[in-house]
Amino acid sequence: MAYESVDKLQNALAEKVFHYTQDKKKAAGRALGTMVEIISYYLLKIWGFNNSTSIERGLVEYGNEDISHNVEYSLHPIIKEHEVTIFNDGNSITATKILKALEQKTNISKFDKKNNNILDTHNVLRNACTIGESNDSFLLTSFKTTGQQEHELFVFEQMQKPYAIFECKRVGVEEGMKKGPQTIEKAKQGAYVARAASSLQKIRTDTGEKYGIIYRSDNKPYIKPYVELMEEIICSHDTELLQKFILTVGIVSNHGNWFTAENYNKELKVLAQSYDWLIFLTDNGLAQFIDELLLNPTPEYIKVQEAFKSSYIANKKRNVFTKVKMDFEADAVLLKYFSDKLNEIESWFNVIAPEGKTITELKDELVELRSKNWKEIL
């Protein structure tokens, strides 16, 4: 790793980028959290889940729809997919323009229009751009191709109910402290959402073994060792098992704050027993991303550095380096970077739970869930 630790890396960012702020290290820490979100999102994109992904979508609790939680990323079944052509007049590509083109292909009367632009006049892309919403689904759009005269866009209808969710958790260490003061609070928040999201619930035996329990339509419980039951549901075509099941994935970062090489901290144990999958973005992975794209990029990656720096200068006009809004040229570079280095980037992640699993197995489970006939299941 180019830096001794993530803490040293945070200090380098503080001095080189955030020197103008009142608390430059805290500002750098917030930026690190954004980078964890961006890395996670572009990994999902390159895995082929771009059109399935929603960002900050509200998720109702299983069995308790009075309470909902916004989750970082949710993966949804796709009901329908269309392609539309939009004339490139140099102006924003608005929901209105896209819906007008779409109504020539299908009935869109059930959808309420959202006032989002997939691309604005400042060349800023909106990821997972929602252009319409109905009682049971969303309309989202993404680019297929871009051109001087016209753009080709995908428009896809997602079911409201997701089959998987992803949440990112990172807490920095303040000066003079051994770990972040809000670490346990963030761990508990993530654990609560993970436990409340899915019909597959977690229970413990008297000896500490983790079992799963899921209820069929006759309200009879079905109980097995947790990982065994989770795998059975994912591979199943049983409507009753799949109907309200949601795979929960947590992504955490910052070694030493969550755990040491010798033992896990309590906070990480809380998360590991709450999410179905808990994966850790290593210091080396985060440092490589920052070094190669933000601090010392080669010419092919310079657009990412420019987008990052323009978002964090003292008199910035807009932020174009987030999971939701990304500079259009930087987005293309990020997609190429993640595509070219996919195997290496996957190695940035360590699987904490389930024990003995690999990130490739997580990807396989997501693909399996995506392939289900959700129209019949739901």
Give a written overview of the molecule:
It is a single chain. This protein is of the alpha+beta class and 378 residues long. Helices cover 37% and strands 28% of the residues. It contains 13 helices and 18 strands. The chain has helices at residues 6-16, 24-49, 95-102, 183-197, 226-235, 239-242, 266-272, 283-295, 302-312, 328-340, 342-346, 359-370, 374-377; strands at 53-61, 64-75, 78-87, 93-94, 112-113, 117-119, 124-126, 129-133, 137-145, 150-159, 164-170, 201-204, 210-215, 221-225, 247-253, 277-281, 325-327, 349-353. A 6-stranded mixed sheet has the order 1-2-11-15-16-18, with helices on both faces. The protein has a 5-stranded antiparallel sheet with strand order 3-10-9-8-5, covered by helices on one side. Helix 1 (6-16) crosses helix 2 (24-49), helix 2 crosses helix 10 and helix 4 (183-197) runs parallel beside helix 7 (266-272). The longest helix is centred in the first third of the chain and has 26 residues, at 24-49. The radius of gyration is 21 Å and the shape is globular. The N and C termini lie far apart (47 Å). The model has no long low-confidence stretch (mean pLDDT 90).
Helix content: 25-40%
* Shape descriptor: globular
Q: How large is the share of residues in beta strands? A: 25-35%
Major sheet summary line: 6 strands, mixed
The strand order across the widest sheet is: 1-2-11-15-16-18
| Count of β-strands | 18
Oligomer: single chain
User: What class would the helix/strand composition place it in?
Assistant: alpha+beta
Which stretches are low in confidence, meaning pLDDT under 50 for 5 or more residues running? Answer: none
Over all CA atoms, what is the radius of gyration? 21 Å
- Give the count of helical stretches: 13
Overall average pLDDT:
90
Distance between the termini: 47 Å
